[in-house]
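Pipeline run #58 for the internal structure catalog. This entry was flagged by the ingest filter as a single-chain record with no existing model, so it goes straight to prediction. Upstream metadata was stripped on purpose; only the residue string is passed forward. Reviewer on rotation: M.T. Logging verbosity set to normal.
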Amino acid sequence: MQPKETWEMSSEERVTAAAGLKEKGNKAFKEGQLARAVKKWDRAVEMVNVDTNMDAAAKAAAKDVKKSCNLNLAAAYLKLHETKKAIKVATDVLEADSSNLKALYRRAQAYLATGDFVEAEMDIKAGLVLVGGTAEGTAAGVLQPGYCNVARGRSNDEANTDFKLLLRKFKQQQAATAKKEAALYSTMFKKLAKDKETSSAAKQQQQQQAEQPAKQPLSENGAAAVAFAPEAAAAEAGAAEVAPMVTETVV
């Protein structure tokens, strides 16, 4: 008997099939088959994503399957270094469950990987508030204590430790990035200053070379010397003989 197509299944059958795909994805993930796991979880989400005809029980079951698959997808995408996808699926979970610790933690990890420090810090501090840890400087109204939905298998203390370790990593990575950027800008400004100095020296040299042909050697009495053609040499000699008279002439 051929398996039914999705459109042929009832709401309950699709939820059951999606749950089966989720478990297959979990198994593949544990075996290190990340691509196969992602494929299974993606398919499971598609099967339960939209159905307005589901009754309340089926909708609740579908919501749980979708949330689990998206959380698992976030973990897989982090391992695959597909951080933007990890952010998207974690955000999908948080839109439906704003106090989900796993989603906050994994999205914070993804933001750290992309260098989005402001967003990472917000998620980390929100997680610390939820588990009762200290999050000095957390923006008011983001999340409030008392709505904690601790991930299965993790106590508040363990989650608190996880978020504190992530906060430490965030501070170290932020400091390292700031130091690297400062060094980069310092190198860039030094190069610009050196280029400006070199350009100024080159312009000054060009200006000096341009002015040099206009200058003429001076004669012994300080007058500019003029080169004459051979035909003018005799005339120059004659003029030299009457020079004393000319210099004594008054006007």
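catalog note: The chain has nine helices and no strands.
catalog note: Residues 137-153, 239-251 have pLDDT under 50 and may be disordered.
status: ready for reviewer M.T.
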